[in-house]
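Entry type: protein chain
Record version: 2
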Amino acid sequence: MAISSTVRLAMIGAAFGVGAALLKRATGRARPTCSYPGPRPRSRGPAFYQGDPCPVWPVRTEHSRGGEVAFEDGGFHGNMSRRFSACRDGCSRHHAGVDLYARAGDVVQAAEAGIVVRNQSFAGGLRAVLIASQWGTLLYGEVDDVMVKVGDRVGKGQPIARVGLWPSGSHMLHFESYFLGTTQNRRWHKKAPAELRDPTDFLLRAQASLSKVA
């Protein structure tokens, strides 16, 4: 059954209430910090997504380039076609997320805790799951075998789906981030949507979780 935007926002509000209570309980403590494995990325316009200070990498993979984040810092790192803001369709629009290397069937996991607010159709005949937290909303795109439903609370690191396979044979996790309260993704044409946030810094912080597992 379809769930209205009002209901989705109410669910998000409930999730934020829990987060606010936890933050209040932690008053007087410094915000947790995690190791930062590389150079700081250059801003591409939209603000960086802050999110959980110590996120986990959003896909469990043994891909040879798993854990790679494409970005610029004066130099180039990774595959530039996969970075945030990369040109699409002859630069008539821009990439609203970061594409992460993974194999088809790899487990996609929540990079931070939150509540599922949307499960929608996406590119390549695949799905996208949107999870809202006290910081904002993350989109996990080009997935299938979704393991959660709208309204579910998910913990950090909890499996939520699997990396899908395009008819062309390509496979990856498409990752986007949005401002607090967003319940639907936005396309980036000439001007970046106001709700859109750059997930690059967040993903670079999430790389730290890979070194802990290794």
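Comment: The first strand starts at residue 59 and ends at 60.
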